[in-house]
Design goal:
Layout (H helix, E strand, L loop, with lengths): L1 H9 L9 H33 L2 H27 L14 H29 L8 H28 L2 H27 L6 H29 L5 H12 L6 E9 L5 E10 L4 H19 L1 E10 L4 H14 L5 E12 L2 E11 L5 H19 L3 E10 L7
Parallel strand pairs: 2-3, 5-6
Antiparallel strand pairs: 1-2, 4-5
Helix pairs in contact: 2-3, 2-5, 2-6, 3-4, 3-6, 3-7, 4-6, 4-7, 5-6, 6-7, 8-9
Subcellular location: Membrane
Membrane topology: Multi-pass membrane protein
Protein name: Cation diffusion facilitator family transporter
Length: about 400
């Protein structure tokens, strides 16, 4: 209810998430709400920590203070990520959003390491912890607030597919766990003599550390180049195949330059018999229309295939049946036949899954086995096979 109210109130045209301005408003909203909630939580927990003398509570308070900085970084990151392209960055600045999430993860790790050290010190030199009902109730309230903030950020992050907001959500839910541990610490420490506060402080710090590591993993992947979005892969392939005279597609490669900022290239199979001018017009139209529709800078390469020759079509069908026995092969393409006396050079490419283990070794084995299978069935065929890697999503078809 509150989340929807905030979105409706502060984000105009909230459903148009492909628009950079709308996306920026989502980022600002998540950042500003994060700053406000975390300042409230820091004040609550810091006061409780001072009153009770609990290092676990104080550690949790300063974790919330670091979250204020994290939310501020999120706001600045969204602002910089939406700067227009310039001479030095022709594809824009969208990856800055990933860098802002990376900075959030580093801040979380710094807080975690700092309070591991402090908590270990409290175990070595224990100090009394005072339990009072009002501070305890404030901690419970803070848990509820942080849980709501996690759900709020997740909602925003899922809506606009933002790694920065998703990182904030993960950070917030880890705070729910750590604050719960702190609440348990306040109850137990007043009843036992051994340093529960310091021990649970270490546990809180380890949860914070785990959260930071997860954030780093989630943000480093797109910077290194992760698997493209499966829905985007399907949409691009389906759109290209919808144009006349295009009978097949392969070798789709997608580069991300930030959320909703993509450059893609794909090979399209077209009849070799069609006029080069006519097919160029079709390809040119497809590039422009699909780029606008999917917000992707798309480049299409034409691969002419001979689909009018009966012998070639017969061999294509024979090869297709043999390839069905090879699970690592997704598809094949660019098949052509060159007659050399009694033998026929059957030349084609196969596409294999990108995660095949020991890729170079297994590629050679795969090709050797496929050649052997073809020659066993058709001795007068001389297969010449090239291997392409599928850099899209995992598929078995």
């Amino acid at each position: 209810m509150i989340s929807n109210f905030l979105i409706r109130t502060f984000i105009k045209d909230k459903d148009n998430v492909s628009n950079n301005k709308v996306r920026e408003q989502y980022g600002y909203l998540g950042g500003v709400v994060g700053v406000i909630v975390n300042i409230i939580l820091f004040v609550i927990k810091f006061i409780v920590g001072i009153i009770s003398g609990s290092i676990a509570v104080t550690a949790d308070a300063f974790n919330n203070l670091s979250d204020v900085m994290s939310s501020t970084i999120t706001i600045v990151g969204f602002k910089l990520a939406n700067k227009p392209a310039d001479e030095e960055h022709p594809f824009g600045h969208g990856r800055i959003e990933y860098l802002s999430a990376l900075a959030v993860g580093c801040l979380v790790l710094m807080v975690a390491f700092s309070f591991v050290k402090t908590s270990v010190g409290r175990i070595i030199k224990p100090e009394p912890v005072i339990f009072e009902i009002i501070p305890f109730a404030l901690i419970i309230i803070s848990i509820a607030l942080k849980f709501w903030l996690s759900r709020f950020n997740k909602n925003l992050g899922d809506t606009i597919d933002s790694s920065a907001l998703k990182a904030a959500s993960v950070d917030a839910i880890s705070d729910v766990v750590s604050s719960t541990v702190v609440a348990i610490s306040l109850v137990i420490s007043s009843k036992v003599s051994f340093p529960v506060d310091g021990i649970l402080g270490v546990i809180v710090s380890l949860f914070i550390l785990y959260s930071g590591i997860n954030i780093l993993k989630e943000t480093v992947n797109p910077l290194l180049g992760s698997i493209p979005n499966g829905e985007l892969v399907k949409k691009i392939e389906a759109e290209v195949l919808s144009y006349p005279s295009i009978s097949g597609v392969h070798d789709l490669i997608i580069h991300s330059y930030g959320p909703n900022k993509y450059m893609a290239s794909i090979h399209a199979e077209v009849p070799s018999s069609i006029s080069i001018i006519e097919i160029h017009e079709i390809i040119d139209k497809a590039e422009k229309e699909i780029s606008e529709k999917l917000n992707v800078l798309l480049v299409i390469h034409m691969d002419p295939i001979n689909d009018d020759d009966d012998e070639t079509n017969l061999i294509r069908g024979q090869i297709k049946e043999i390839i069905k026995e090879f699970n690592d092969i997704i598809s094949f393409h660019d098949l052509r036949v060159v007659n050399c006396g009694e033998e026929r050079n059957v030349i084609f490419d196969v596409v294999i899954t990108h995660n095949i283990k020991r890729r170079n070794e297994q590629k050679d084995v795969l090709v050797s086995n496929l050649i052997a299978a073809i020659k066993a069935e058709y001795p007068n065929y001389n297969p010449v096979i090239a291997v392409d890697i599928d850099y899209g999503t995992e598929r078995n078809s």
